[in-house]
Amino acid sequence: MSAQSHPGRQRTTWLIFIGLCLFTFVNLMPLLWAVLTSLKDPRDAFTIPPTLIFEPTLKYHIEVWTENDFVFYLMNSLIVSAGTVFISVPAGSLAAYAISRIPRRSAGPILSALFTIRMFPHMLLAIPFFVMGTFLDMIDTYPLLILALVAINQPFTIWLMHGFFLEIPRDLDEAAAIDGCSNWQAFRIVILPLAKPGMTVAALFSLLLSYNEFLFALVLTGTDTKTLPVAIAAFGGEDISSWSLSAAGAIGIMLPIVVVMLLLQRHLVRGLTAGAVKG
């Protein structure tokens, strides 16, 4: 029976593998096309049928990094992303820990309210933030954009960390209290080290959400704090002759995040696995 079922399982495995390869290929096609476009001259980028054999050039990549204030916009994006992570993750962890330690009957409405806030369209929240920033004379400043991104990312961070804290037995809190720890000491000394994988995942997702944010950055920034997603939109997107430059800019904006994800890939997988396994 097992000998007969083995070929069937092997065939199913191969079908799943082929399906995943096709799915990955379809998702990577826009990226591959952008890479090829960034290495072509515009006259080669829009030929029909597409030109697959061409003389590659790094002209547009060099132009993006040296002549379009790309580094300045990159620094703005990194400042905003770092500020968002350093505020969102600690605050979200504290809130998630508190919610995880109250009765589920009380925690349910709080989590539902956070989930509802997360579903709000960004445009619905961008206008009040713009009005508030104008009133406080904070438009085109880092604090306003960082606080706005923390506000829209916080529900996700709390939901994510809440799941990790639920996996940590409450017996540890009680044991810490018996040893003389206050609630803060129990959280900082006992619980927080066990939740580090979850905090790593929360930090990475907060970094991605803030680094790629376009609408809030468009509405709340100006010449001094403009971030990369907003700046890239002005890199000749409407002029076909500048699409190679736009493609080079798109590749450039992606590189820092790719480097970060490659460096922290092990921690990301460990954190996601820890949050998915109970007991």
How many helices in DSSP terms? 14
What is the overall shape? Answer: globular
Question: How much helix, percentage-wise, in residues?
Answer: over 70%
Element order: H for helix, E for strand: HHHHHHHHHHHHHH
CATH architectural arrangement of the largest domain: Orthogonal Bundle
Q: Span between N and C termini?
A: 34 Å
InterPro entries: BP-dep_ABC_trans_perm, MetI-like, MetI-like_sf
Family: Belongs to the binding-protein-dependent transport system permease family.
Protein name: Binding protein-protein-dependent transport system inner membrane component
Transmembrane segments: 12-36, 70-99, 111-136, 142-161, 198-220, 240-264
Descriptive account of the structure:
This protein folds into 2 domains: 44 residues; 166 residues, MetI-like fold (Orthogonal Bundle), CATH 1.10.3720.10. The mean pLDDT is 84. The longest helix has 37 residues. It starts with a helix and ends with a helix. The chain has 279 residues and is mainly α. The chain is built from 14 helices and no strands. Helix 7 runs antiparallel to helix 10.
